[in-house]
Structure formats: structure tokens, C-alpha cells
Amino acid sequence: MGIKAILIDYEEKYADIINEIEEQQWGRWCTGDIRDEITKHTCIKLAKINKDIAGVGYGKIVGDAFYIQVIVIKPEYQHIHIGSMFMDYFIDYSKSHELSNIVCEGVLVNNKMNIENIMKKYNFKEVIRIKEYWGYRFPNDWCKECGCKPCKCTNVIFVKNIK
Ligand SMILES: CC(C)(COP(=O)(O)OP(=O)(O)OC[C@H]1O[C@@H](n2cnc3c(N)ncnc32)[C@H](O)[C@@H]1OP(=O)(O)O)[C@@H](O)C(=O)NCCC(=O)NCCS
């Protein structure tokens, strides 16, 4: 296809573009500042195509698990395996840190789940569905996915054992 993406490390100069990509995806209400996510356990990568940032993925080590917080690919770059590049990276990262599990959260709304295909591809196991999860956690936020405040989306938690 001629489009070649590479994953690069986070630098402060990318913070605003990351916030913008997330805001495009989740809306202003549900987007914080990436700078507030950074701890010594956080891993942030960006996908770069030529000079363009095509997407962002980040997560953190929590005990013996790696928790993938966000993978967002800009709409024009979706379905060309950039999401898979992030998954491959985080799986390798988790293995190299000798972690036991990788955890991911999906959003289920109107019978559609955003990460269904990629979870199948990587053999993640669904462990629990929690109705109106974000609505209870963040009652004052308006959700772009379901159009409600509080959010009515179902949280679907997936786990992959890597040991
Ligand atoms: C979800 C998302 C991250 C996936 O990224 P992507 O770059 O589009 O994904 P990829 O091209 O690597 O696609 C994964 C592909 O695995 C493929 N796949 C699925 N099951 C498979 C299997 N068993 N074997 C092989 N391949 C399989 C599918 O073709 C799927 O592509 P599709 O979604 O186009 O059908 C991206 O679409 C996105 O940013 N969505 C909006 C934000 C979001 O919902 N993020 C997730 C929560 S943070």
C-alpha cells in the first residue's frame, strides 16, 4: 500500500497533538491531558507516517499487569494494521518486563464494541461486562459514543495471559 508507519517514543512536544487526536475520538468531555498520565510506570508510543502522527497508544504497568489505557488511530489511518503495531509493541514490552497479564477495556454501545476485532486477533479473553461503568465513575461527563450524560456505555474488560 506504500504507507509505512513507525512507532516512536513520546516527547513533550507531542503532548498537544496527542490530546487533539484523543479529543477528536472521544470528545472534549472525555479527554484529559496526556501530561497528567505520565508516571514512571507509563509507556507512551506514537505512530508516525512521514511527518504525520497517525495515532497514539499508551498504558501503564500496574503490579504484574500491563494496562492498555488508550490506542487511538486517526480515522484516515485505521484498518491498516497500525493498531496491531501498538498491540505487538505492548505485548513485547510486557514480556520483557516479565509481567503476567495484559488488560484492555472496550466500549460497548448499540451492540457494537470498538475493540472486538483486535481483541479476537490477539486472543484476549473477555472477563467481565460492566453496564454504565463510566456513567457511574464520571457522572458529569457527556459521552460522544452514546450521546448521554451520564454515559450509558458498557465497559468490557479483556485479559491476555502472557506467562
Ligand atoms: C480500534 C483501533 C485502535 C484498531 O486500530 P487499527 O489500526 O484500525 O487496527 P488494525 O488495522 O491493526 O486492525 C485490527 C485488524 O485485525 C484484523 N483481525 C481481526 N480478527 C483477526 C484474526 N482472528 N486474525 C487476523 N486478523 C484479524 C481485522 O481485520 C482488524 O481490522 P478491522 O478492524 O479493519 O476489521 C482503531 O480502529 C481506533 O483507533 N479506533 C477508535 C478508537 C478506539 O476505539 N480505540 C480503542 C480503545 S482505546
Description:
- This protein is an alpha+beta fold.
- The chain has a single domain, classed as 3-Layer(aba) Sandwich (Aminopeptidase), CATH 3.40.630.30.
- It has 4 helices and 8 strands.
- It has helices at 15-26, 82-96, 116-121, 133-137, and strands at residues 5-9, 42-49, 52-62, 65-73, 101-109, 112-113, 125-130, 154-161.
- Strands 1, 2, 3, 4, 5, 6, 7 and 8 form an 8-stranded mixed beta sheet that branches.
- Strand 4 (65-73), helix 2 (82-96) and strand 5 (101-109) form a beta-alpha-beta unit.
- The longest helix has 15 residues, at 82-96.
- It is globular and about 40 Å long.
- The termini are far apart.
- Bound molecules: coenzyme A (COA).
- Residues 25, 70-73, 78-84, 114-115, 117-118, 120-121 line the site of coenzyme A.
Summarize this structure briefly.
This protein has 163 residues and is α+β, with helices and mostly antiparallel strands. The protein has helices spanning 15-26, 82-96, 116-121, 133-137, and strands spanning 5-9, 42-49, 52-62, 65-73, 101-109, 112-113, 125-130, 154-161. Helix content is 23%, strand content 36%.
Q: Give, in order, the helices and strands.
A: EHEEEHEEHEHE
What count of domains describes the coordinates? 1
The second-level CATH architecture is 3-Layer(aba) Sandwich
Low-pLDDT residue spans: none
- Outline the biggest β-sheet: 8 strands, mixed
CATH superfamily heading: Gcn5-related N-acetyltransferase (GNAT)
